[in-house]
Amino acid sequence: xxxxxxxxxxxxxxxxxxxxxxxxxxxxxxxxxxxxxxxxxxxxxxxxxxxxxxxxxxxxxxxxxxxxxxxxxxxxxxxxxxxxxxxxxxxxxxxxxxxxxxxxxxxxxxxxxxxxxxxxxxxxxxxxxxxxxxxxxxxxxxxxxxxxxxxxxxxxxxxxxxxxxxxxxxxxxxxxxxxxxxxxxxxxxxxxxxxxxxxxxxxxxxxxxxxxxxxxxx
Length: 218
Fold this sequence. Notes:
42% of the residues lie in helices and 21% in strands. With 218 residues, the protein is α+β, with helices and mostly antiparallel strands. The protein has a 7-stranded mixed sheet. Helix 1 packs across helix 7. The longest helix is centred in the middle third of the chain and has 18 residues.
């Protein structure tokens, strides 16, 4: 499937070109020769955890970790790692307070694989219930280990004094917040934030050829 992006901006000061795809997604390309074997990629769009209520805040702040560890399609993280053996492509989704997007890198020869990983996070994200159960128990264990730590106790009281009643400033999650870590709800939130790429701005910096422009657009 050929996609013809339109170059919509050329910034000569910062030396990058911006392209717009037919679906509205934009990507910036900055060609460099610092490292011949590296392309660094990132993307963002606005929204993030700010769109969710206080009851969903703790879950939403953990969604990218849950989905990232659960992996994509029908592959576990270890299975994907085996498939990518010898391949430099690495891509991770993120959701912070006001944005969502991706961070990653690859060698020029593995750019297509990196783009395929991004595509799979959009089309086939995965939420592993076994991982969420283990993650929940690990949290409870960590809380038991730090609960009596004077420094942690001080930080918790400090933030409660500075931000009284703020349910989004969490030093030690309570049992209700830990119990909110639900695999199905995590997947639903991820799909809401990454339902398509039309509102994303992607940035590619590194050893990028002219042929890569069409590949990125596709």
